[in-house]
Protein: Cytochrome P450 oxidase CYP721A57
Amino acid sequence: MMQFLLAAICIVGFYLTKFLYANWFIPWRIQRHFAKQGIKGPGYRLLVGNTTQIRAMYTEAQKKPMSLSHPHDIIHRVFPFYHKWAPVYGKIFLYWFGKKPRLLITDPDMIKDVLTNPSGCFGMIDIDPFVKLFFGDGLIGLNGEKWAKHRRIINHAFKTDKVKGWVSDIADSTHTIFKLWEKQRGDKEEFEIEVNKDIHSVSADIISRTSFGSNFEEGKRIFTLQEKQLGLISQALRTIYIPGFRFLPTKTNRDRWNLDEETRNAIQKLINTNRKIKENAKNLIGLLMSAYKNDEGVEEKLQDSEIIDECKNFYLAGKETSANLMTWVLISLAIDQEWQTKAREEVYQVLGDSTEPNWDQLSNLKIVTMIIQETLRLYPLSVTLTKQAHKDVTLKNINIPRGTQMHLAMIAVHHDPELWGENSTEFNPARFTEPRKHPGAYFPFGAGPKVCVGQTLAMVETKIVMSMMLRNYSFRLSPTYVHAPMHMMSLKPQHGAQLIFTKLRD
Ligand code: HEM
Structure:
């Protein structure tokens, strides 16, 4: 009996020591390692780190809308823990995402080093297996040589001359929403729209046309399936991940598997159709299927299953971000009528009698471009970027142990008065006529090898949709609009974007 008890005590003692070593001693040692280098932070809490404090700050911040007196000064609402902790611990501090150490960085030199470092010591963070299920083997979820191969092929598909071929598709998507709005307007001069919702459908239409060409209606159905999948995955992310749980045949898991299968089958069908008709490879799916020779002249190809994953990634990466960017441009111009008028005058001048811009006219939309750039500065859709140190590394004299996550505070850099001047939180597109003070001060699309592959498409579609809207309508905030920027996957208006539109020209 005594022997049995001793054995039990030994086993419990062994596991307890192991648990305390991983969950208490290692975080304590990492914290001390950074403290010795002058880097402080809110302090590790067993297992949860600072996540519960951070979640509480977000919940609190999202309870109150913002006043419109300083509408673009949004950090306190969309990045509340930075707002609270940076004044206490400084512009670089250590916090804990569960038991993962995260170094919050706002120094543009360090950020540039992390994003552009060619040695591969900073890479993707370990992602939740549920999220991995969604990204599959697409660019967002890949690392290493496999990522590099996909990236070479996809870069080729998003080249400027390819994007040029999508201009009329993008204009068609915009005309489609105008038709709907005109029905809604009837014979009224003014009408109110929750524009965020409608812009999301324009963006879905665009990504569907560019991805699937003439099969874009079927593409839209596929993306609706993905939207449902995203909803189920977001649900999973709100709960603690239990290893192996995703394999259990629960109702939600079965729904997830069915949706995944339906999506894969539908994209596979479109691949087969494309293969038969050999549509002039203008759409993304066709471009990804066509043979591509790399710099060494070697032919590289993606398997059908890889193309399917990439299509899913384009929707996830491209639809939400572009739609929210367009929404923030409209809200910013609804607040600032002077810039709205300037932009419209430019559009009239560049487009003349045409109802939509052509490729050559796009580069003449200088004011519209500056407005989009300024909106991306004030409302950077991803708010932050997170990378992980895959080996021990020194960054600006700070010694960073392997496994540390680097939380690059994009929005803090974009709003920093030291980099952008005292009026850093004011909407002033004219600042983009001046050369930038620091190359690392602005990176809404990321930088370095992982830079957004769809950025040319995003800028082109935003310019086309915005110039067409400016040409057709003037707009202002509705009295029902509540200014409440919120960060959930992307930066969006928490209660929608209610604007009042007035029809200008036919
Ligand atoms: C305003 C619109 C957009 C913004 C602000 C944006 C921003 C970003 C950012 C910040 C990254 C991450 C860079 C990193 O991890 O270092 C990224 C990656 C990516 N974006 Fe975009 N994006 C936009 C639109 C699009 C569109 C329209 C597409 C495609 C249809 C797209 C496809 C991707 C893909 C596939 C990646 C992963 C690249 C890789 O890992 O190699 N994005 N984007």
